[in-house]
């Protein structure tokens, strides 16, 4: 297990690693973390706390997730790790020909075309039914109260709300988008930081989901409202799509890195990218973090992993995906040989045949949860179902319209998914949940957090505080303003196209909870957001 006496924080931070024994909830929104803790104090477990925090986030941080989004979870309980994929498929009426008839050359980001079946409400109900201790009505009560009574907008959420509003004013034209403005900009503007915001519609919807264990969302009156809205504006969601939906329990996938097993949800999510990169990187020695060669090797490995991920990752129920081959030692060795002294233009290989919120919870009984949910880009599609407060996500924006691509659009198919929860174990014992939200930054954030922890022996807070980088495309790398300048200059000399960025939000927002060998919980939270750890 990790020796926390050797873990240090070489970076200046406004936070220190937090320690507790009885329970911990780490979230980018303080009120959500405290809601999760309140559920723990009432006798709930880490699963209940994760649901409570997640549902609260749909109200407290609608700029990143919502009732109409998707969710994934990794749950450690009773000595085993479980994976839940609660992402939804494309509607049966949505076909490639439909988009071509509309003149689309690629998947749109707004409107009905990118809307897939929402999976988040089903995730809450499924996790509660299988592993929860408290009634779902009690677990969801804090979120319902915040929606009904209101809450003051936090700084990061307020800034992102204003950005989304400014974009939507120009992008969302037509009657079908009017309810977004009524719901999320009732005064004709984004709510200001510190201003009270509430949604009675969200409160009623969440109450109904809690009382019916999400049945009303997929089979009842909420489903009727979603379908009526869809039909009124020539959308594609129908009752059959909602009624047929069920989340899927999956076997998590892993690679061993420095003696620890790093776990991810299998495709259609792209946690596979992080695992492929780590598999390549474990063939190198990393004695020093702050040197150009260390960053160069990480960047090159992730570029190769993304090249494969973007070619091969798709809904495994619709196609054959050779995960074992992509994660094999032999394939990692072949990809590793491509890395030289200069930046490469990444190309996919040939393996052997064969806007998001993240939170972490742990309790005193040994349960731990890595949970993530999203509307994808900001508020999602720009569509809000009248009288419900449900902002429908735009996850289908990731579909390809190339009929020969693995991730091509098909009715009933789930798209390539960017949200990924992570988990770390050693010798079949839990170390804990971790995650870094943020679209295509997520597997890059996972690799950086894992390496900060296992290669550079940083504590949880230091792992999150460290300057981040992200591969954009080709040889282009964005780096944070705090990234060491002399290393950036050396990377330029190696052929990397380095772009400095002052926008820290684009580098993801993470949470970590590690459990020591003696049962102490150690947590870190994101300095790039309104991160908070609630504990006792």
UniProtKB/TrEMBL annotation:
Keyword Protease appears in the UniProt entry: no
Source taxon at top rank: Bacteria
InterPro entries (UniProt xref): GGT-like_enzyme, GGT_lsub, GGT_ssub_C, Ntn_hydrolases_N
Keywords from the UniProt entry: Hydrolase
Protein's UniProt keywords contain Hydrolase: yes
GO molecular function term, any single one: hydrolase activity
PANTHER family attached to this UniProt entry: GAMMA-GLUTAMYLTRANSPEPTIDASE (AFU_ORTHOLOGUE AFUA_4G13580)
The name this protein goes by in its record: Gamma-glutamyltranspeptidase / glutathione hydrolase
Organism: Desulfosporosinus lacus DSM 15449
